[in-house]
Amino acid sequence: MTFHYNHNNEAIGPIDTDALAAKLRSGELPADTLICETGATEWKPAGEYPELQFSPNIEPMPPKIQGDASRFDMSGGTESAQAVEVLQSREGSNSKAEVIAYTKLSGSNEIDLAKDIYSAYRAGMRLKQVRVTLNNGEMVMEAGALHYMRGNLDIEAKSGGVGKWFKSLMSGESSVKPRYRGTGIVHLEPTFRHFLFVDVQKEKWIVDQGMFYASEGSVSVDGVMQSNLSSAVAGGEGLFQTQLTGNGWAVLSSPVPHEEIIKISLNNEKLQVDGNFALARRGNITFTVEKSTKGIIGSVRGGEGLLQTFTGTGEVWLAPTESVYQKLKRLRGIGQLANAQGSRGTKT
């Protein structure tokens, strides 16, 4: 792909993606430079083109450690530099957790797969990993999430008994969550999914089923039963949810990026949600399901029916855009099924 860019009210180009991205990163061109694809007519700011921000011609940078870097010295070699970017990070007492993104994927040798990857990156999606650096520290992760690790690390995996197994099963989490202790670097599986950090500060977090991914060792992860029948049966969250307590960072797997999360603070208030897009809550908040009107007939006529209701003091995290993605996914599935049925119908 090639572009033209506006410089002193003059269209300059054509110039290829990598060359233009290099000019933007070096500061030779401002970040808000107007760009137009060759052959197109619409001019847009460069920031609206992900491929100009994440290009393979990036000077490799070693992983950055904020704060006292000596605390995280691995003393036994360094990681080879890669073209990755740190999206989010948290530093604990003896650990540092980061969500890193690969700036570009260009290793596919299949044309169709390469097209899919190109489309994904142009849409703003990136392949991501959670990377945790331990300095005589400890972390916990969901079973099966490990990709690779190096350093002096010990692993402990305990099931926690039948009770723990049952609550984990009902909350959508694995019953065995390995603990990694020592000094080293741990990489979790690469994925296109989204991640959120939560800071557990001697309080209780309740998160949606299956969201827990990893945490500092000082954070306790457990299944907790819903406090009332209405929330368990009609709330869409199941009988158990995941509870985080203690003090430290935790990484959650999210259906939407963190930029699309709305955080609502409640002060002895009530929040009602028409749908199942509340992801997490913290503080002294009670979760119930209520009718949108006093009578069930009125609720049906009003079109809202049952509402997820959060009452108390604390914070609720919502993902309003999740329902849009789910709807589009269902429509795409219906379209694929129709195409498949049409193909079978035309066979002779």
- Percent helix range: 10-25%
pLDDT averaged residue by residue? 79
What is the H-and-E element order? EEHEEHEEHEEHEEEEEHEEEHEH
Strand content: 35-45%
Quaternary structure: single chain
| Alpha-beta content class | alpha+beta
Radius of gyration using CA atoms only:
24 Å
Q: Care to count the β-strands?
A: 17
Distance between the termini: 42 Å
Note the main sheet. 13 strands, antiparallel
Q: pLDDT below 50 for ≥5 consecutive residues: which ranges?
A: 54-70, 72-77, 165-173, 296-303
Describe the structure.
The chain has 348 residues and is an alpha+beta fold. The chain is built from seven helices and 17 strands. The longest helix has 24 residues, at 322-345. Mean pLDDT is 79; it is low at 54-70, 72-77, 165-173 and 296-303.
Task: Tell me the layout of helices and strands.
Layout: E1 2-7, E2 10-16, H1 17-26, E3 34-37, E4 44-45, H2 50-53, E5 84-91, E6 95-102, H3 111-122, E7 128-141, E8 146-156, H4 161-171, E9 179-188, E10 194-201, E11 205-207, E12 212-216, E13 219-225, H5 229-234, E14 240-254, E15 262-273, E16 278-291, H6 296-302, E17 306-318, H7 322-345
Antiparallel strand pairs: 1-2, 1-3, 3-4, 5-6, 6-7, 7-9, 7-12, 8-9, 10-14, 11-14, 11-16, 12-14, 13-14, 15-17, 16-17
